[in-house]
Design goal:
With 202 residues, this protein is an alpha+beta fold. It has helices spanning 2-15, 131-195, and strands at residues 16-24, 30-37, 42-51, 62-67, 73-80, 82-88, 93-100, 109-118. Helix 1 packs across helix 2. The longest helix is centred in the C-terminal third of the chain and has 65 residues, at 131-195. Mean pLDDT is 80; it is low at 5-18.
Length: 202
């Protein structure tokens, strides 16, 4: 009994696939990738748009599309900052997913995305609470936590850039105020000195 549970756990760990990537999107362009799926395979993509520019202070967005084997759109998200999509392959073939930056001229926009999926396993009774189903559910939850951590990292980068930009502006404004105060003090000293000068006429 223990041996069969171990074998099932081992097989499920082989069937779970996960990858993480970060790519730069060209201005007015797109980046596409593909996966070959069999019928019944589950495929998930989570993504987060960001900006590689250190001076960026805003959260960028983009478009995301998934095409089926016949080049028909089976999932789409427009102007999203982040998102997650899960599909189940209805037929075997090449499934293409694209990140679009076609409506923007920003050339420092990047996207961090995670892909993971479960190869379909035909269980005798998939409705029962089997160990295989529990392990797959646990694996999916772990990937969701990992994706959330990736999202937090990118948000932290954006907020850090905003804070550094604000600090820089406050610094230069303080220097400008100091220059104005010094110039005003010099002018007042000069003016008062001339005011109290005694001019004698012979």
């Amino acid at each position: 009994m223990q041996l069969s549970k171990f074998i099932t756990l081992f097989l499920v760990s082989l069937f779970s696939v996960a990858k993480a990537h970060t790519v730069l999107l060209p201005a007015h362009g797109r980046r596409c990738f593909f996966e070959n799926l069999s019928q019944g395979d589950e495929f998930s993509v989570s993504f987060q748009f960001g900006d590689r520019s250190p001076s960026s202070t805003e959260q960028l967005n983009g478009d995301f599309l998934i095409y089926g084997p016949n080049d028909q759109i089976i999932s789409e998200q427009y102007e999203s900052e982040h998102g997650e999509t899960t599909i189940t392959a209805r037929s075997a073939g090449k499934y293409t997913y694209c990140f679009l930056n076609e409506r923007s001229s920003i050339d420092t926009k990047d996207v961090t995305f995670n892909i993971y999926g479960v190869i379909y396993v035909d269980l005798d009774n998939p409705n029962t609470d089997s160990l295989d189903a529990s392990v797959r559910q646990l694996s999916k939850l772990v990937h969701e936590v990992k994706n959330e951590q990736s999202y937090i990292v990118i948000r932290e980068r954006t907020h850090r850039n905003t804070a550094e930009s604000t600090n820089s502006r406050v610094k230069y404004w303080s220097i400008f105020q100091l220059i104005v105060v010094i110039a005003n003090s010099v002018f007042q000293i000069y003016y008062l000195k001339r005011f109290f000068e005694v001019t004698s006429y012979v």
